[in-house]
Specification:
The protein is 72% helix and 0% strand. It is mostly helical. The protein has a single domain (79-306), classed as MetI-like fold, CATH 1.10.3720. Helix 5 packs parallel to helix 10.
Amino acid sequence: MSGSAVRARRVSPPRPLAKARGLGESGWGWLFAVPAVMLIGGFVLYPVLNTVLFSFTDFNGLTAANFVGLEQYGRLAGDSVFHRTLLNSGLITAVATVLLVCLPLPVAYWIHRGIPFRRFFRAVLYLPVVVPIIVSSVAWKWLLDEGGLVNYVLVTTGLTSGPVSWLSDPALAIWTVTGVIVWRAFGIYLLIYLAGLATMPDDQLEAAAIDGAGHVRTFGSIVVPHLRGSIVLSSVIAFVAAMRMFDEIYVLTGGGPANASKNTAYYIWESAFSYFKFGYSSAMAVVLLALVLGLVLLGLRLAGRSR
C-alpha cells in the first residue's frame, strides 16, 4: 500500500465532547450547576418569594388567603412590640458581633504561636459548637436558675448577697442570652482565624521578632492586617447569625420577661405558630430580610473601600 493511500485513510482526530455536542466550556459549567440551582431555587428562592406574597395577604393557615395590599406593613409601623424586638435584635447583634469578631482574634494568635497544650485548648474552645444548641441552652438554664450552680457559687463565696435573677430580670435577661450566644459560637470564629493564620508566612513573624517587636506590636502591625479578609467574613457571619437567633431565646427566656429579650426572629415565629398570623409574620420576615441584606451589603462595600 502506498504512502499516499495510507495518508488518505487517516481519520481526523475526534473533536472535544463539548464542541461535538454544540456546548462550550461555559455551557457545560452551567449544565453541571443545574442541580445546585434547582436546590437553591426550591429551598431558598421559592420560600422567599412565597413569604413576600403572603405578606400582602391575611393568610392564617386555616382559611383562604385574601389580598390586603400593604395593610400588614401598616400594622408593623404601629406595633410597639415589633419596634421593641427590632431594638433587642440590634442590641444582641451589636454586642455579639463585636465580641465574636474581637475576642477570638488574640486567642487564635495565642494558640498559633505554639503554646503548651494548644490542641487541648483548641478542642475545649470548640466543644460548645458541637454540642446541640438545645442541650447547651437547657444546661445553661439550669445553671443560671435562681437556685442553680452559678448563684450557689456567688452566694457561697460572698460575691452577692442573694441569688441573681439572670433570666427573669428585664435588665439582665437580654445580656444573659447574648453571653450564652457568644459562648456557644466562639469556637467557630476561632477556627476561621486559625485558618487565616495558617496561611501567614513564618518569615514575617520571625522578622518581627528579630527587629525586637513585641507580641502586641506584632499582633497589631502584622497579624491583624493579614487577617482582614477573615475579619470581614467573621463580621458578616456573626451579624447574620445574631439577627436570626432563635434557639437560645426560646429555651432560656421565651422572649421574656415582658418582651425584654424577645428579638424579631422570635416574634416572627410567635406570630406565625402561636397566633396563626402568617401574613403578619411574613411581613415582619420581609422587613427583617431587607434590613439584614441592606446592612450586609453596606458593610461589605465599606470594607472594600477601606482596603
